[in-house]
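@channel sequence for tomorrow's demo:
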Amino acid sequence: MKKTINISLILCFLLITVYSFSQNTEELFLLKKLKSISKDNIIALEHTSVCKEKYQIKITQPLDHNNLDAGNFTQRVFLSFNDLSKPVVFITEGYSASYAKNPAYQNELTNIIDANEICVEHRFFGESVPDSLDWQYLTVEQAANDHHNVIELLKKIYKGKWVSTGISKGGQTCMYHRYFFPDDVDASVPYVAPLNFASEDPRAYTFLENVGDSACRAKIYNYQKTMLKGKKKYLPKFKKLAHKKNLHYSMGLEAAFELTVLEYPFAFWQWGIFNCNSIPTDLSAKKMINHLDKIAGIDWISEEGVSRLLPFFYQAMTEIGFYGYDTTNFPGLITALKKPDFYFTCPENTICTFNPELMKKVDAFIRHEAQNMIFIYGETDPWSSTSVDLTGRKNMIKMVKKGGSHRTRIKSFYGEEKEKIYKSLEKWLNLKIIR
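structure tokens (generated this afternoon):
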């Protein structure tokens, strides 16, 4: 008996073969392009359907862009490729970019505008760390030059529109890069990015006195007061939990307890994970401390926590600013903490002196010169207390999500608000977003 040939199966097999061949050819083409512009280490990465190809590149950067004899370091860059004809989303990460190695990772903006994606790890973080931590080279300007170099290099491949973006400290980094190199990209979308003018910017105090409703603020205050007044009761449980987590505090355990309690309202509103009804009033000491840990976290001001974030704290205390705590509502209750600020996080044998001049220049640039920027904020996020101020120019937009926290994204908006964001991106990047 003769076997019949299924024409449909043959055609399907041929189509799959042709498609696979074209994909492999395209991959080789892109890899060849990357190797032609960079002699640095290029590694192919696993990826899901969020992109066609994915690479990690280690790019050699000058430690000091003003003095090339100062040495070099390698900066980790993640590149997700879809099509050379599509725009590029350029992520100015403010910390480590290890998450970008995840095969399924894709930035929100990349998905919205159907783009290629480049994520740059910040100098002195993750694997982008020089052999010797010479803190004088960890500056906003040096980092902006890093990003400029990456863009100049990869623009040899990508000829379309570019939009820079970043979240929180990455959003700050995005702003600073635009200040130093305003023409590197066609548009920018910084998320929840503060623009601080002091190492203890007092605008946070006013914000926390008015955020939410009075009933919720009263619950927060009462929780803090209960913890501070009952220090003898709660401190042993704080110590036990710290020991369990193997945490140590250079300022002393009692001062660390007080500082963590002072951090509570900022952290509560920043993340917006817990509602006001979840704030405890008179539970066991263990449960009260566990709640403090869930909201404010007892790790981050420990020696171990500060060590992990040391580059951030250095930048906060010298250039990009931070916040402090108003202790006037707790007379006589702050006894161990000498000063409620973060200068204790300054690297050993290093003097941290804050200079506000650069942030003022960035502020003036954003108000009067910058073009095509969308700033995303959450209404109840304390970082929005030091958000940018705009002058009303049509090509500069500030979007504040009502009730939104530090987790606010474009997807948090609906209706006319989201449409305003989409239309601006379409105009500036000359593309059509699929609704």
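heads up for whoever presents: The CA atoms of residues 109 and 428 lie 14 Å apart.
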